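worker-3 :: picked RNA-binding protein KhpA
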Amino acid sequence: MKELVELIAKSLVDNPDEVHVNEVSGEQSIILELKVSPEDMGKVIGKQGRIAKAVRTVVKAAALKENKRVVVEII
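worker-3 :: tokens ->
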């Protein structure tokens, strides 16, 4: 999951070197914290959060295959 979020984010931003994904495992779910440079924050979130929602949907679909619950947070 971490690699998937990182791949998607790096393809969206202008500074792919500043994309970092931190994985925090909980009891029932995995939290993926996505950090990008401040200039690229708008590109990752998109208008009215559409791109962020699409990224979360893709990750949720991939997580369902592995019977996991994944939450993507953009920091």
